[in-house]
Amino acid sequence: MDPMWLSCDISRGMFPHEKAVCIKTTSRMVSFFLPTEQIRLETPENGRGEIQVGVLDVYEQTAVVYLPEKTIEEGRMVKVPKAHLRK
User: Fold this and answer.
1) Which of 16, 68, 73, 81 has the fewest CB atoms within 10 Å, i.e. is most exposed?
2) What is the pLDDT of residue 41?
3) Distances from the Cα of 46 to the Cαs of 10, 16, 64, in angstroms?
4) pLDDT beneath 70, residues of the chain
């Protein structure tokens, strides 16, 4: 499983030590909470950031990734646009 950074939307979490993470998959938006130290913010004011994921499979336009936490809507494995990933 190759680690990569996945672009995502970041907002305040329920507790001071966490953030809400929202990811666009190939079929819908999914969300979950992560500790703040596991998120790399682009800039705190714009609500964009990156999280580290494990890449399981890569296709022409998409990739299957293993998220650091289970999503509210799905499990931990989701298919995302390949363009949202970087090393």
Assistant:
1) 16
2) 86
3) 9, 18, 27
4) 43-45
Asked if 63 and 55 touch (Cβ cutoff 8 Å), the reply is yes
Give which of 19, 16, 18, 64 is closest to 8, Cα–Cα: 19
Q: Which of 11, 79, 10 is nearest to 51 (CA)?
A: 10
Closest C-alpha among 28, 31, 37, 38 to residue 11? 31
Structural domain boundaries, residue 14: 2-86
Residue with tokens 């990811």: 23
Angle, CA 43 vertex, CA 85 and CA 64 arms, to 5°:
15
What is the total count of domains within the chain? 1
